[in-house]
Recover the amino acids of this structure.
C-alpha cells in the first residue's frame, strides 16, 4: 500500500513532466502555469488511494488521475475569472497575468486535455468512467450557476447552500474515488460507498474553507482572508448569521451587506465580530464534524481490510484539521 505522500509525489512528477508541446504558446503557457502552482492534489490522490485498495499498480492510472486534476484546475481558472480573484495558492491568477480572454480559452483547452487523459483508462471501464465524469462536470456547472444565483438573493436557506456546495465541490471528490475504485475492480456496492465517502468529505471540506476564509491565516490558506465577507458571498456562516441574528445584529449586518463605499479591513472586522457575537463559528464547526463522521462511516462500509483504508481515513482527518 502506498501512502498519500508517496502518491502525491507520483502525481506531481507526472504532471511536471507533461509534454504540452502544441502551439500557440500563448494558449498553453497559462495551462503550464496553473498546473505548476501545485496544491494538495486531493482529487487525484483520492483516485489513486481508492484504486490502491484493490490493486498495487497505481502508476497505470496516473493519466486518468491527472485528467481529474487538470479538470479541477480548469474550474479554478474560470472561477477566479468570474470572482475577479487576484490570488490562487498565493500566486497571481491567470487573468491577472494575462487577460480575461486568455483565461477563458486556456481553460477551455484544459477541459479538452482532461477528457483526453481520462479516456486513457482501461477500455473495459471507459464508458462508465466517462459517463460519471461527464455527469459530474455538468453538476459542477449547475452548482456554479446556483452560486451565482445566490448572489442576487437574500433568502438563501441552509439546505439550498448545502446542495450548492454538494454540486460545486463534493461531486468531483466523490467521482474521483468512485472511478479509482471501479478501475481497481471494486464491487458496485464498494464503488457506491466510496462515492458517498467522497460526497460527505466534500461537504465537510467546503464548510472548512468557509470557516478558514474568515478565521484562517492567509499565508497558510493561500488566499486573502475575508474575501467572502467583502463580496457578500452566501456562505454557511452568513446564512446562519442572517437566520439567528437579533434585530440589532441583523440591522448592522445588513448595513455592511448593502454598503458600497467601505474600507475593506473595517468591513471584515465588523462582520467577523458579528459572527462571533451570533455564534456561527460553532455551528459551522459542528456541521463539519457531522459530515466528517458520516464520511468515515461510509468508508467503514467499503468491504476491504481496514488496514488498507487507513490512509484514506488519515487523509480526511488531516484535511479537516487544517489550522485556523
Amino acid at each position: 500500500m502506498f501512502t498519500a505522500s508517496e502518491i502525491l509525489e507520483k502525481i506531481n512528477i507526472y504532471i511536471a513532466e507533461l509534454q504540452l508541446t502544441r502551439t500557440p504558446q500563448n494558449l498553453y503557457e497559462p495551462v503550464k502555469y496553473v498546473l505548476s502552482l501545485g496544491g494538495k492534489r486531493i482529487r487525484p490522490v483520492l483516485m489513486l488511494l481508492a484504486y490502491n485498495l484493490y490493486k498495487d499498480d497505481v502508476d497505470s492510472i496516473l493519466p486518468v488521475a491527472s485528467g481529474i486534476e487538470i479538470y479541477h484546475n480548469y474550474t479554478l481558472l474560470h472561477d477566479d475569472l468570474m470572482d475577479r480573484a487576484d490570488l490562487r495558492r498565493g500566486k497571481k491568477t491567470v487573468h491577472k497575468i494575462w487577460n480575461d480572454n486568455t483565461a477563458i480559452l486556456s481553460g477551455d483547452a484544459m477541459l479538452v486535455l482532461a477528457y483526453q487523459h481520462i479516456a486513457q483508462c482501461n477500455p473495459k471501464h471507459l464508458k462508465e468512467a466517462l459517463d460519471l465524469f461527464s455527469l459530474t462536470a455538468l453538476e459542477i456547472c449547475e452548482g456554479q450557476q446556483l452560486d451565482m444565483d445566490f448572489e442576487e438573493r437574500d433568502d438563501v436557506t441552509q439546505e439550498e447552500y448545502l446542495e450548492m456546495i454538494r454540486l460545486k465541490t463534493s461531486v468531483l471528490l466523490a467521482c474521483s474515488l468512485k472511478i479509482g475504485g471501479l478501475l481497481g475492480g471494486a464491487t458496485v456496492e464498494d464503488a457506491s460507498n466510496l462515492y458517498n465517502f467522497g460526497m460527505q468529505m466534500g461537504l465537510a471540506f467546503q464548510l472548512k474553507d468557509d470557516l478558514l476564509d474568515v478565521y484562517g491565516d492567509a499565508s497558510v490558506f493561500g488566499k486573502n482572508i475575508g474575501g467572502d465577507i467583502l463580496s457578500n458571498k452566501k456562505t454557511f456562516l452568513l446564512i446562519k448569521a442572517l437566520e439567528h441574528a437579533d434585530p440589532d445584529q441583523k440591522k448592522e449586518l445588513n448595513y455592511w451587506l448593502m454598503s458600497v463605499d467601505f474600507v475593506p479591513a473595517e468591513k471584515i472586522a465588523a462582520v467577523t465580530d458579528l459572527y462571533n457575537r451570533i455564534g456561527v463559528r460553532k455551528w459551522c464547526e459542528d456541521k463539519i464534524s457531522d459530515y466528517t463522521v458520516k464520511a468515515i462511516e461510509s468508508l467503514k462500509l467499503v468491504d476491504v481490510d481496514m488496514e488498507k483504508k487507513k490512509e484514506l481515513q488519515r487523509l480526511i482527518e488531516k484535511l479537516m484539521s487544517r489550522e485556523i
